[in-house]
Amino acid sequence: MAVSDGGRRSEAEALCPHRLVLEHVTSRWGVLVLIQLLERPYRFSELRRAIGRVSEKMLTQTLQTLERDGLVHRDAKPVIPPRVDYSLTALGREAAEQVRGLALWTRQRMDDVLAARQAYDGARTR
Fold it and tell me: Each residue's pLDDT tens digit in the chain (126 positions)?
């Protein structure tokens, strides 16, 4: 990941590295990549289609970040045309299982969240 904030990210990473990894794992696209790769290895274009609505640039950045953190393995095969497969490492599988649990919880509890939102919005309009 490029540092474009004058080095602040490097300082933050040095002071609290687990927080930065948590950001990577729980980012919008990080969550979806990890959950999708739990199924099987994917080629870039397959993964992009499976996730949906992610730009090529964002998917590339997300995969590079997760690879740097040791969660995703990039396997470039020396064939023509080039073939690159992405899969989870053992560490990535652990993280993905945790994230999938949270994703399942949000799906199961969505009715409660919607009810809470409605109550909140109703109280604020009175």
Answer: 444 455 566 666 666 889 999 999 999 999 999 999 999 999 999 999 999 999 999 999 999 999 999 999 999 999 999 899 999 999 999 999 999 999 999 999 999 999 999 999 999 987
CB atoms within 10 A of CB 63: 21
Residue with tokens 């690159």: 84
pTM above 0.90? Answer: no
Closest CA to 45 of 73, 6, 11, 84: 84
Q: Which domains does the chain have, with CATH numbers?
A: 8-124 (1.10.10.10)
CB 71 within 8 A of CB 89: yes
Distances in whole angstroms, Cα of residue 39 to Cα of each of 33, 42, 106: 11, 9, 20
What phi and psi, each to the nearest 5 degrees, are found at residue 25? -70, -40
| Residue 73 DSSP SS3 | strand
Would you say 33 and 41 are in contact if contact means Cβ atoms under 8 Å apart? no
